[in-house]
Design a protein that fits this description.
It contains nine helices and nine strands. It is of the alpha/beta class. It has two domains: about 140 residues, Response regulator (Rossmann fold, 3-Layer(aba) Sandwich), CATH 3.40.50; about 50 residues, Arc Repressor Mutant, subunit A. The strands form two sheets. A seven-stranded mixed sheet has the order 2-1-3-6-7-8-9, sandwiched between helices. The chain has a two-stranded antiparallel sheet with strand order 4-5. α5 links the parallel β7 and β8. It is globular.
Length: about 200
């Protein structure tokens, strides 16, 4: 990765954030660390960044909500990497969805996290499809090579799925989203098909 990149690291795990920030700063990059969504929004409003390294779960929200925020669309770095300790495939898929971003697990060796960040920095631009770090090959691959084709949820399905995970019934989901019960049940069937499950509990 070339030197001098402006990098925003959004992570509420101090030791992880400090380790990544120190290693990248040692390579000549300008690092800013935000531990909350609010801090990240403030920094994005004040400075421009070449790359964003964002955790999924933060104390005050979901990191991907920063990426999806229309108010930040013009401020978001051109290269985005989700760095998370999440192991749930459903949550990873929801984070990636159809966004042109990349993902790496915090569970891989630290040197591989740094290698992934370096690889991202070398790319001229982000591919239009999401990527995931494949540990065996030590490289990013299209997420479709890791998760089966057709497993991504649409934005509307993702809204339903999030409420399913909270334990809401079909009727409660329909009321919450102002949709017909028929529409919700069609979307739930699609979610189950994409998740390869037939029963509601298995979908979770």
């Amino acid at each position: 990765m070339g030197t001098g990149l402006q990098i925003l690291l959004v992570d509420d795990h101090p030791l992880v954030a400090a380790g990544i920030a120190a290693a990248l700063a040692a390579n000549g990059h300008q690092m800013v660390v935000a531990q909350t969504m609010a801090e990240a929004r403030r920094w994005l409003g004040e400075r421009s960044f070449d790359m964003g390294l964002i955790d999924i779960n933060l104390a005050d929200g979901k990191g991907v909500d920063l990426i999806d925020d229309p108010a930040l669309a013009d401020r978001m770095p051109g290269k985005l990497l989700i760095i998370s300790g999440v192991h749930d495939p459903d949550e990873i898929l929801m984070a990636l969805d159809d966004r042109g971003i990349a993902f790496i697990s915090k569970g891989v060796p630290f040197e591989d996290v740094l290698a992934a960040i370096a690889r991202l920095g070398e790319m001229p631009a982000m591919p239009p499809t999401p990527m995931i770090w494949e540990q065996t090959r030590k490289s990013f691959v299209p997420v479709g090579e890791v998760f089966r084709r057709g497993s991504f949820l649409s934005p509307k399905e993702r809204e339903v799925f999030q409420l399913m995970r909270q334990g809401l019934s079909d009727k409660e989901i329909a009321f919450r989203l102002s949709r017909s019960i028929h529409t919700v049940r069609v979307q739930i069937r699609s979610i189950r098909r994409k998740r390869g499950s037939t029963r509601r509990g298995e979908t979770m």
